[in-house]
Write a structure and sequence with these properties.
Largest interface: A-B, 47 and 47 residues
Oligomer: homodimer
DNA sequence: CAAAAATACGAACGGTCGTACTATTTAGAT
DNA sequence: ATCTAAATAGTACGACCGTTCGTATTTTTG
């Protein structure tokens, strides 16, 4: 049974795929229904009928983006063995995600975070949930790093995830806005320092 | 001679002050001339006459924001003594800047960076210049930290500034989007770890 | 105080925005 | 092949966008 999907669902997926691209460039607010329809050779009203409001579209764009992120970053990392390999895989895939050509406009969530951090409403709430989920995932992975003995037993895993996030944000900024070719090296260096500080004290 | 400023320059300053606020909430693109005029009881065309285009307005908003940042962060930090006090003052004032009530919509430059990182044109170029200036300032301050012996002589000062920036970005995200009350503690902890790693090796 | 220059206003322009309604086309089931 | 329901198109709406222009008002200057 391949055909669970009616035709409408297929075009909706098509729309969302393009919408994720555009939203990463123009932001969730800057993404307009008319423009989105034009780039897909659809009528504005025909496209609009798939969502009942722009707000609903924005929420589905976030979900579609999160799904891609899961497939490109979370899934391949999760199937690495627990401990060091998985921790390093997350960072590696995350870097690749930022560089990914499908992210022509930069990471959708970096853009959306800056855009929505001071707005209220369901779109913001949805973004917060997605971001907290991703944070928690990384906290848990750090915990398995502790269990496997790769990390110190007294490591503050939430602190680890916080600092890891900071490295990625600085990388995003340095690579995408400043276009500094050293950005990736800087990010890796910072990550190695974070790893080292999280490991059991060196036997001297 | 107090009156170098004609009346028009005064209102222009007023406009820019409000515009910086609004832009930090709505972004540089989301900031509209009509709305800006309304909140100031000005006519749209009267306001527009001060700038000849929205693009010019956006550039001046960035400059106005950079000026406020200079006065709230750079200047007080610079007049601290070289070395550790100045380095810590930068971080401290920077944290206060993010919390500052004048930044109701979050840091203008975080918002603008995410918005403009994939656009071309003079507004983006202007933002890049401002951001590079700030980065260079911090690199130079780190260098004086080396000269004063507070930091290791082989410290990579650009790397230091990169990681410092990451901590602030993670703080911004964690405090403003996630509304995590532990954000500030996390940021301080990360900064202490960065400081410690930058200091001369502990005599054991 | 008058002349000149700077500043602000009101109305209007062509566009695009999100959304609502109605029609037309298309697809799937019988 | 026909009927029904889903999917898309068409049209219109009021609101707001950035921008222009002509005019009125205020400020500065001589």
């Amino acid at each position: 049974m391949e055909k669970i999907m009616k035709k409408g669902d297929l075009t909706r997926q098509n729309i969302l795929s393009r919408a994720v691209d555009l939203a990463s460039q123009l932001g969730l607010e800057g993404l307009s229904i008319g423009l989105l329809a034009n780039t897909l050779n659809l009528s504005k009203s025909g496209l609009f009928a798939h969502f009942q409001s722009k707000e609903a579209l924005q929420i589905q764009v976030l979900d579609a983006g999160a799904l891609i992120f899961s497939e490109m970053v979370v899934r391949p990392a999760i199937q690495e063995p627990r401990g060091e390999p998985r921790i390093r895989a997350i960072f590696e895939k995350w870097i690749q995600w930022v560089q990914s050509k499908s992210n022509a406009g930069g990471c959708l969530f970096v853009a959306a975070s800056a855009e929505l951090d001071d707005r209220a409403g369901p779109v913001r709430d949805h973004l917060v949930k997605i971001q907290k989920d991703w944070l928690n995932t990384r906290v848990r992975v750090a915990m398995t790093g502790v269990e496997k003995g790769f990390f110190r037993s007294d490591l503050d895993c939430e602190q680890f995830a916080f600092e890891e996030h900071g490295i990625m944000l600085a990388y995003h900024h340095t690579a995408r806005l400043l276009r500094d070719p050293k950005a990736e090296v800087r990010a890796r260096q910072a990550f190695e320092r974070l790893i080292q500080a999280s490991q059991p004290p060196r036997s001297v």
